[in-house]
Specification:
Elements lengths: L2 H6 L3 E5 H15 L3 E5 L15 H5 L4 E3 L4 H13 L3 E5 L10 H8 L2 H4 L9 E6 L14 H5 L5 E4 L3 H13 L4 E6 L6 E5 L11 E4 L8 E6 L4 H12 L4 E6 L2 E3 L4 H10 L2 E8 L4 H12 L9 E5 L10 H4 L3 H12 L2
Parallel strand pairs: 2-3, 2-4, 4-5, 5-7, 6-7, 10-11, 10-13, 13-14
Antiparallel strand pairs: 1-8, 6-12, 9-11
Helix pairs in contact: 2-8, 4-5, 9-13
């Protein structure tokens, strides 16, 4: 048994997000020999972010396949494998590379179950390292998650910590529906204590990760997912020093949205700030804002504020710190909503 296999069976351990994903993949592959990994450089190299490190060595080249540089080929092969009873997990090396496979995802992967009246299942997981903040070149720092949330037939999720990385990966692979699994690549090396023996919560559910002080009148709700969760938690800590209480909610599931925890929090605080790296136009943040306005209209004491990436193509690396939401922009939005 390899050292990683021993780790996967232990109790609480400190893991990075990347290692949580690695052990989650390992656990799924050990539990079901129909789980197969496909992607560019995921075998001998272990992936450019080393998320699949050691898996080809332990499970063999027939279950961890190094593919040609063809995202359409990767997705197409995965669909064929799924129809034949396998559970493929595709790695798209960088977010900006997913578009050559877009047609396969939208036209086939998302629709086969519906078009076959449920006779065909396509349990494919598409792993997408996404978001900015790593100083990469063009096409390596995108936030395309909203595009896939518009497509009926796909589940879309994003982890933000090592615990969710470990459990959500296994749950996504076990799902009989196709899952787009977005991984915050600039957070891959952030660590957390993970209990690999605990009972995980449901995959398609948001979660209150920090509850603010209810004894103050200066309150608001912060909602985000993936790479911006760390920024929101830092904002809540900074705001508390000034007597401002912030609930922080991790969406986790982007489609379908699970907003009951958001509604409950907004009914307490009366204010919402939505934070995401993706542009604001026709986005997840706009859908959350609309649904909160519909469900919590009489509880709102201020308009919903959004802190997002700008409605432009992602900029060159030297300008990305101006593009990405940061602590100052989030705290400014909190101040704005409290000013009403």
């Amino acid at each position: 048994m390899s050292r990683d296999a021993e780790q996967a069976g232990q109790g609480t351990q400190t893991l990075t997000i990347a290692k949580g994903l690695n052990l989650g993949l390992r656990a799924a592959m050990e539990a079901d020999n129909k789980v197969i990994l496909l992607g560019e450089d995921i075998g001998r190299l272990g992936g450019v972010f080393r998320v699949t490190d050691g898996l080809q060595k332990d499970f063999g080249e027939e279950r961890v396949l190094d593919t040609p540089l063809s995202e359409s080929g990767i997705i197409g092969a995965a669909i064929g494998l799924a129809v034949r009873g396998y559970r493929p997990v595709c790695e798209i090396q960088f977010d900006g590379f997913i578009f050559p496979g877009f047609d396969q995802i939208i036209s086939q992967l998302a629709k086969l179950h519906y078009r076959s009246e449920g006779r065909i299942s396509v349990p494919v997981v598409v792993r997408v390292p996404y978001g900015g903040g790593i100083g990469a070149v063009e096409h390596h720092s995108e936030s395309p998650e909203s595009l896939f949330c518009h497509i009926a037939g796909l589940k879309v999720v994003s982890c933000s910590n090592a615990t969710d990385a470990y459990w959500m990966m296994q749950q996504a692979i076990a799902s009989d529906d196709p899952v787009m699994f977005f991984e915050p690549k600039r957070r891959y090396w952030e660590k957390a204590d993970v209990d690999t023996t605990a009972e995980p919560g449901p995959l398609m559910a948001s979660r209150l990760v920090r509850r603010g002080d209810q004894n103050t009148t200066k309150r608001a709700t912060l909602v985000s997912y993936g790479p911006q969760m760390r920024t929101c938690l830092d904002a809540a800590t900074a705001a508390a020093e000034d007597g401002v209480s912030l609930d922080v909610i991790d969406l986790r599931s982007l489609s379908p949205l699970s907003l009951e925890p958001v509604f409950e929090s907004v009914r307490r605080t009366g204010r919402l700030v939505m934070v995401t790296e993706a542009p604001s136009e026709s986005s997840i943040s706009s859908e959350v804002a609309a649904r909160v306005q519909q469900e919590c209209f009489y509880s709102l004491e201020a308009p919903v504020h959004r802190v997002t990436g700008f409605d432009t193509p992602y900029p060159p690396a030297k300008l990305e710190e101006h593009y990405l939401p940061d602590l100052d922009r989030v705290l400014y939005a909190v101040d704005q909503t409290l000013a009403y």
